[in-house]
Amino acid sequence: MYTLVLAFVTAFMLTYSIIPVIIRVAKELRLFDHPNDRSSHVTPTPSLGGVAIFAGTVCGIVLWTPLPAFGPLQYILAAFIIIFLLGVLDDLTPVSPVKKFVGQLMVAVILAYKADVQITSFYGVLGVQELPMMVRFALSITIIIGIINAFNLIDGINGLAGSIGLLACISFGVWFFSVGMISLAVSAIALAGSIIAFLKYNLAPCRIFMGDTGSLLIGTMCSVLAIEFVEANYQTALSNPFRLASAPSIALAILILPIFDTCSVFARRMMRGNSPFTADKTHIHHQMLAITGSHARATSLLLLFNMLFVVLAFSIRDLGTQQSLPILLIVVSVCGFILYKMYSAKTASKGG
């Protein structure tokens, strides 16, 4: 427990101390995120908060992960460095989608191949159990890239990506600690400490954004935690009280907001005959912001929504993945449909 506390405090203090310096330097060099027609902010704002998140997280991990437990963490840290550099470059000089994808692919390959972060089975979902080696490798890369981009896409209003990342890190971190997987527990809690420090400066009045540097890093960490959670759960002894009957459903519930938002937005764009990568303002956070009129209220409600899904997933975990997963998908689809209808009615009334 002391190890987790020390990792958290180290990451928090370092991030909290660095951010004011980054804000000052960004203002001196005029390194701002300027608002455009898709932005939710109206004034130029520094967007390199992810640099502080990265520094605090990595220092917390390296300083306090016990050496015997370090294991494949070296490969995970290598992936973090690549995604960090990609994020910084994109924040300073926008990177083309192709180059951005290549960088994310490199990260995913390192994690899946070197760190062995892989989904090895469907655990009975759709009647599928063990997956062939190439299938699990390709699927794992797809999931990692998907979660990375999902967090990148929800980073559209103050505090949202950080809050959902914080929920995921605490949820997964506590479980990993409970089953004795110290390296992943320290990693998750260190990032949680950095995120809390960042949110102090990101929530109203907003002084800095995390930028792609932060959202890509959080997405990478959450993809590792989610996959490792599912795999480790089924390697845990049946007698262990922390073994869960439907780990995939719980992992989905913890990340339900970014995953559902990405899937629903892509689906709507393709139904309209547009490319799924065409930028617009129909994300869940845009809808909630239009309804509530406040970044703080929109973020709070969406975080509460995500937390309620985690509670729901835990309450039906004994049903098993084959039964609990469809329930979660149906409920989130209904909620998403209701939110979209409320958003449509709100925008229609304004137009009228």
Report a brief summary of the structure.
It is built from 13 helices and 2 strands; from the N terminus they run αββαααααααααααα.
Computed structural class:
mainly alpha
Q: How many domains comprise the coordinates?
A: 1
Query: Percent of residues in helical segments?
Result: over 70%
Element order, helices and strands? HEEHHHHHHHHHHHH
Strand order of the largest sheet: 1-2
Low-pLDDT stretches are: none
What integer value in Å does the Rg equal?
20 Å
- Sum up the overall morphology in one term: globular
pLDDT averaged over residues: 91
The N- to C-terminal Cα distance equals 58 Å
**Given the structure, what is the number of helices?**
13
* Strand residue percentage: under 5%
* Biggest pleated-sheet summary: 2 strands, antiparallel
Described by its quaternary structure, the protein is single chain
Number of DSSP strand runs = 2
Describe this structure in words.
The protein is mainly α and 352 residues long. It has one domain (2-236, 244-351). The chain is built from 13 helices and two strands. It has helices spanning 2-29, 49-64, 73-92, 97-114, 133-154, 160-178, 182-202, 211-235, 247-254, 256-271, 284-292, 295-315, 321-351, and strands spanning 32-33, 45-46. A two-stranded antiparallel ribbon has the order 1-2. Helix 2 (49-64) runs antiparallel to helix 3, helix 5 (133-154) crosses helix 10 and helix 7 runs antiparallel to helix 8 (211-235). The model has no long low-confidence stretch (mean pLDDT 91).
